Amino acid sequence: MTEPTHIVCPHCDAVNRMPQSRLQDAPTCGKCTQPLFTGRPLDVDSARFERHIGRNDIPVLVDFWAEWCGPCKMMAPAYAQAAGQLEPAVRLLKVDTERAQDLSARFAIRSIPTLALFKGGREIARQSGAMDAVRLSAWVRQHIG
To answer: Which PANTHER family match (predicted)?
Structure first.
């Protein structure tokens, strides 16, 4: 028997346990009954960031961005498109570096957009600069195997 996979709900942040094999079956949250995967990136603050990084068993891709950043705005549609391609294998988060300056400092974000890929609560890869959806998905898949 395989270990259950923990998935944090993008709506209520409850941690759900399920078999890995059920991730493709459009699972819903046991607490709020909303879909666990929406095909869209999730905007998070510092507290929600900690919950999703620390409790999701699937890899988590984070886009560190800011409203005033032209390349960030240019990459936003590609990031949203990548979410539809990568879920349910990867959760995609967006962190506004202006609102979550503690995270910007903690992860030494020096340029934006910066993508950071986390697995098991640890950062495993980082890429600065805007990418299109195809390159972004390929970069993620390269690092998660």
So the answer is: GEO12009P1
Predicted TM-score (pTM) of the model is 0.96
Is residue 82 in some structural domain? yes
What CATH number has the domain bearing residue 71? 3.40.30.10
Instruction: Report CA-CA distances (Å) from 97 to 19, 83, 87, 100, 117.
Output: 34, 20, 24, 5, 16
The reply to whether 32 belongs to the active site is no
Tens of each residue's pLDDT in the chain, 145 residues: 568 999 999 999 999 999 999 999 999 999 999 999 999 999 999 999 999 999 999 999 999 999 999 999 999 999 999 999 999 999 999 999 999 999 999 999 999 999 999 999 999 999 999 999 999 999 999 999 8
Catalytic residue (one of 9, 12, 32, 72):
72
Give the active site residue among 9, 12, 32, 69.
69
Number of domains in the chain: 1
Q: Is residue 28 part of a domain?
A: no
Asked if 112 contacts 101 with a C-beta cutoff of 8 angstroms, the reply is no
